[in-house]
């Protein structure tokens, strides 16, 4: 199975990842997230746009109950020779507020965060296993 | 939390979804998939390009052990007012081979499947719960 040469680098450069947490009943909860990688840790702010709305916090409840998460980034193209994905399995924890370096990295990566309130909870994932695939 | 008016339609129109299955140890296994929706069922062929390579079949082993899956499609744009996602939680089963209607739908949706061998296993997901979000 052909793999990427540099899954963590390809992952870090992506604009969006999909996060799977585990609900209390064990089912996977999927949600797209923005993120920045800081010192090898994947950091994602919990919605600065609409904080304190309960449904948004479900992923935090999941992580507090079971820290095992998965994330994937991928590139789709109608020319399937361009397809690739990079996945990471890891452990998540909540930092509230997030570190100043994580906040700075998110602001640097995303214009949408430049003026946003980022003093809420931050999901911080420690990668444990990288998996990747490339069509090339 | 603003939602899409038509999550199943928006989902069906997407070119790629991300599937989460549950590994035997209960962790979520994420992988991007192509798919077609046929009679309300989400159908995904197991890699016609490189069949019979064991790592590709991990999602089938997962589903046989636990049919609970999640899928998400999303649109990313640097203008965050354009963001949306649609998620479905459901139960998956394996059909081998897939139905002729599922094969036809995949071939109609994806040029890459037009001449591909699609007589292998097909993942068929029965949606149980739709969730969506839209920034607008």
List the defining traits of the structure above:
homodimer; 136 residues; alpha+beta; seven-stranded antiparallel beta sheet
Mean pLDDT of chain A: 92
Largest sheet of chain A: 7 strands, antiparallel
The total of beta strands of chain A comes to 7
The name of the CATH superfamily of chain A reads: Electron Transport, Fmn-binding Protein, Chain A
Strand content of chain A: 35-45%
Q: What fraction, in percent, of the residue positions of chain A are helical? A: 10-25%
Assembly status: homodimer
Structure in words:
The structure is a homodimer of 136-residue chains. Chain A has 136 residues and is an alpha+beta fold. Chain A contains three helices and seven strands. In chain A, strands 2-1-5-6-7-4-3 form a seven-stranded antiparallel beta sheet, sandwiched between helices. In chain A, a hairpin with an 8-residue loop joins strand 5 (68-75) and strand 6 (84-95). The first copy, chain A, starts with 6 loop residues before the first helix and ends with a strand. The model of chain A has no long low-confidence stretch (mean pLDDT 92). The A-B interface holds A 1, 15-16, 18, 20-22, 26-32, 49-50, 53, 55-56, 68-72, 74, 76, 78, 80, 85, 87, 89, 110-112, 135 and B 1, 15-16, 18, 20-22, 26-32, 49-50, 53, 55-56, 68-72, 74, 76, 78, 80, 85, 87, 89, 110-112, 135.
